[in-house]
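Human: Here is a favour to ask of a fellow structure person. Comparing notes only helps if you start from a blank page. I am asking you to supply a protein in sequence and C-alpha cell form. Write it directly below this note and I will take it from there.

Assistant:
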Amino acid sequence: SYAKISCKKIAKTEPVPNDYCYVYNFNDPRSPIALSFKAGEGKAFKEDISELIDLVKVALTNVFDTSDYEKKKQSAVKNIDDTRERLLNKMTQIAKKNGFVFKTSQGGMFLMPIVDGNVIEDNEFDNLDPEVQKKITKSMKLVHEKISVIMHELKENDEQSEEIIKDFDYKLCMLAISPYIDTLREKYKSNQKAFKYLEDLQEDILENFKDFLEDDTDNADPISSLMPVSRAKRNEDPMLKYSVNLIVDNSEQEGAPVVIDFNPTFYNLYGEIEYDSEFGNLTTDFTKIKSGLIHKANGGYIIVQAHDILTNPQSWEGLKRVLKTGEIAIEPLREQPSVLFAPLLKPEKIPVSLKVILVGNGYYYDILSSYDEEFAKLFKIRSDFDYEMKKTDQNILNLAKYIKSFTIREKTPPFTAKAVSRVAEYSSRLVERQDKLSTRFNIIVEILCEAATYAKLENAKLITEDHVNKALFEKEERLKTYENKLDEMMDEKVIMIDTDGAKIGEINGLAVLDTGSYIFGKPTKITATTYVGKSGIVNIEKEAEMSGQTHNKGVQIISGYLGEKYAQDFPLSLSCRICFEQNYNGIDGDSASSTELYCILSSLSGIPIKQNIAVTGSVNQKGEIQAIGGATFKIEGFFDICQKRGLTGDQGVIIPNTNVKDLVLKDEVLEAIKNGKFHIYPISTIDEGIEILTGVPAGTKNRKGTYPKNTVHYKVMSKLKDYYCKSLGEKPE
C-alpha cells in the first residue's frame, strides 16, 4: 500500500505516456504494425480510420453505381472494343468459310463443325461416318492454324482493354477518396509511421476498391455455401484489415500509470493473441491481439508481489527479458503445442520504459541475489519498509484518515472517535509497543470490515467502540481452540501449574505460542535439581534434542554468571539439571534464562520461590536482565489462569524493566492492576528478581568479600562450598 501511494504521488507529476495500437500490415499480413500516438490521439486515430472507411464506401458507391460511369468507361475503351469486334468478325468468317461456327461458353470459344447445314454437337460427332470425321478434323486443324495469330491479337487486345479500364478505375477512385485521405495525412503528418500507413491504406483501397462495392451474399452458390471451408472463406470480412486495434488508451490517464497485479501470469503481463475455432481450424487476425499489464504500465510503474511472480517462472523470465531489451513482444508460450497448428502472427515489438517494483520480504531478495546473476543488474535499488511506525499525533491522524477512506471505499457508516481510538490501540498491540503503530494495514482492514458488518447487522448509523471490540473478541474466539485446550488441561491439573504457595527449585516461567494467525502466552513449570558433581548445568531439553540453539546459549550464560558470582575462591563442584516440565514440543529462545537461574538459586539456597509470581526475562553473565519478546501475551497468559482460579492480590509477573514500553495489555488486565489484584514487577537485575520471588534479601558482598548471613547469595555460596569440600572428601566448614 505504501509503495502504491508513493508511486501514485510521484506518477501524477510525470507525463502521460503514449497510446499504442496495432494495424494491418499490407506488405506482410503476418506482422501487424505497432503505431504510437500521444495520449488521446490513439483513440482519435481509431475513430478517424473508421469514419474514413465509411466515407470511402459511400464515395466509391456513388462513383461506380451510376450510368455516367458506364458511359465514360465505354468511351475509354471504344477503340479497343472496335478492334476486338473486327478480329472476332474475321475469325467468324474464316470459320464459316471452312464449315465451322464459334460457340461461346464460360470455358471460352469452341469451333463446332457444320454438316449438311446442321451444327454437330460433341455427342453427335462420334456418330458421323469415319471419313467425315477425318475430314472435319483436318479442316479444324487448318482453321486453328489460320486463327491462331488472330487469337493472339485478340488476347493482347483484351489485356490492353483491361489495363485501360484498370487505369481508368484507379484514377477515378483516386479522385473520389484522396480528399478524405489527404485530410488525415495532413492531420498525422508529424507521425511518420502513421503517415506511411495511410499511404499503404490508400494504395490497398485503390487496388481492392471492388470490396467496397460487391455484395454477392444473395447470389451465393447454394452448393458451395454448404462446404465448411468455402463458407469460412466467404465469411471473412474484407473490411477487417482496415480496422485499428487500440491496445493502450491513455486518453483519460492523469500522469504516469501505476499498475498493481496479484496474478502475474504470462499472458496477464505480456498480452496474448486470441484464436477462434471454425470447423476445427484455428483462425486469428491482428484485431485479436490483447494487451497485458506491461503495456498498460508502460511509461509508468508496475508493482508485483515477488512471491506471485516467482511462482510463475515464465513470467519472471519474461519480465527480465523486457527489462533487458526495452521491448515487449506478444507471443505464445512455447509450451503450448496447440498454437503450432494455428496461423502465427508476429506483432511488431513495442518499446518499453517503466519501473518495476517487487514487493516481498528480505528472503526473496537474498535468494534472487544469490541464485539469479541478472537480478542485481536489473533491480539496483533495495528499500526496506518497517512493520511499525511512531505513535505520533500525525500518524494517529493518518490512521484516522485511512479508516475514513475505508468507509468511503466500502460505503460503510463512519467510525466514531472512540472506535478510531480503539483501532489505534489494536494497532499498537500488533507491534507490542505503546509508542508505536503497526503498518500491517491488511490485518487492520480485517477488523474494520468485521466491525462494519456488526454495525450493519444492527442497522447502526455509526460504527462504535463496541463494534470494534466485538470484532476483536470474535476474531480471537475463532482462533483460540489450542489455547482453550491448554486451559482445560491446566484446570484439570493434567498440566501442573501452581499459582499459590512456595516451592524450592520450582518456578513458573512464561512462554509464547504462535499458531501463525494467533499468538498467546501460557505459563510453564521449570524445575531445577542440584547436587555434588562435576557436570555443571545440564539442560535436559538439550539432552533430549528438544532445545534450540538460542536456548542452549542461555544455559551457557547461566554457567558464566554462577562462575563469576561464586567461583572466585574455589571451583564449582556442581551438577545441576534444569527442565521445562511437561514440554513435548521443544523449546527455543533465551527469554527464560533468568527464570532458570532463579530456579537454580532456589535449589542451591533451599529458599522456596513464590508460585503466585511468574517470570520472564533474559539474563547476561553479569546478572543484568535483558528485554524479551511477547511480554504482553506472557503477562495475559498468566493473568488468565490466575483469574480463573481467583485473583488473590499477591499474584503477578516479573518482566525486564526495558519491556515496560512494550506492554499493550487488555482492559481487564489493566483494571485488575489498577485495583491492586494483579501486579507487574519491572526489574533490571537478578538480585531484584530473587528478592521479589523469595522475600529474602539477595545480599551484597562486604569489604571482606563475603555475603551477609540470611541472604540468598550467602546461602548459595555456603552450599557451593559444601559441595566443593564434599568433592574433595573433606568435611564442610
